[in-house]
Hints:
Aldehyde Dehydrogenase, Chain A, domain 1; Aldehyde Dehydrogenase, Chain A, domain 2; 7-stranded mixed sheet; 22 strands
Amino acid sequence: MTQSQTLPAFPARSYDFVEYVPAKNWIDGQWVDAASGQTIPVENPRHGKALSKVVLSGAEDVDRAAKAAKKAFESWRRVPIKERAQVFFKLKELMERDLEELSWLVTHENGKIIEEARASVLKGIECVEFGASLPNAAAGERLEVSRGVTCTQDHEPLGVVAGITPFNFPIMVPLWMMPQAIVGGNAFILKPSEQVPLGSLKLAQLLEEAGLPKGVFNVVHGGVDAVNALCDHEDIQAMAFVGSTKVARLVYARGAAAGKSMLCLGGAKNHLIVVPDADVKLTAENVVASFTGCAGQRCMAASVLVAVGEVDHVIDAIKKRASELTVGKELGPVINKASEERMGRYVDEAEKQGAKVLVDGRGKRGAPEGYWFAPTVLDGVTEDMPAWKDEIFGPVLSIVRVKTVDEAIALENRCPYGNASSVYTTSGAVAEYVTGRVEAGMVGVNIGVPVPREPFGFGGWNHSKFGHGNITGMDGYRFWTRPRKITSKWELQQDSNWMS
């Protein structure tokens, strides 16, 4: 692919293997190779072989992108916000036009079944829609605070900003960040996961088609070297990150030490509390969808089911539903061989430590090739087991038994993460009691994936987030901007009060 070529349409409309163009950097409206000349393969997890390759960038490439973004920012910041938002009105239209292409692209580079891939793109479109609404939602504030004295507050862009996104949602997670940042007047550099770089190529092309000026959006591919260069670059004013807690903590510390505004979302160990009065059918369907959806590779997936008292009738229904899922059709592959092996080790270790395997996903495959792990349910898990403590990031549900709701809440709150928690009950009193006491930033009642819809912001607590505020909604807009307060007086005051 030369610099001047338009990306070809992604051809797949089935799970059959296809190849696609190499993933190059997108800098100042040009497709360019990395300075290193190095590439690594991009695997299709369903087939276990490369559908593309991606360049590996370093500090030189990040500097090139930052310079292009800095130059573009000077004119982009002066475009009125209502005009900046028009790009995202157009982007929404283009993404809806190309919904099937984008969805199948996600399926092939990430492994999601097509229904999940399509849902993730539609959620990304919702984030674009919110960005397009910002001229109304983020209108400046003005108040006469004293006789003849007014205060106004506007939100000014920061300059060049950056986002680092994970493998599990190649299109959706970048769109948690870009609309608020770019409509806010910033120039943006995206560093997607090197495992799923292809969605970002399409976003770059669609933004160009939507009328975004060159240099306002740039893509730099790579691994650790690219991340470190983004953290260190003096022209980058703010960064957001989504990934594991271990890396989120490191990125947050390095970027903050360089003087950047940082917001880093980390891992999760979400607890679902089930009480005896829970609706059996609703709970079983919901819990299984939560821990198996996207092959469990999402920070909102159920990890631990806290069984309060006599709930074996509910667990039996969960076991039955999980056993019925068809691997390959209703459950996609996991991202790579290392993930498949890691999940197996957690189940092996839990079983050795005394947990009972109610549903065993080890060795079950959706196809001869690729990387697979079927739904797995562990019962009798205790707090000393890694299956309770660690984020497995796969379709594995660990059941912990307690006697009371208070014990369940205490168990939840001993977990260092604080991303999401849910309670399954038909009692409003129990629901209110639990939701007001669990240590989690996102809480559900009879909902296993309590993702807040726009304009409500996405973000957890404790070790699931480093930085202030949420990454989506109005918090996201505030993160990518800074408030300017202006106090004005235009005439001599004829009387006085204490403020004079």
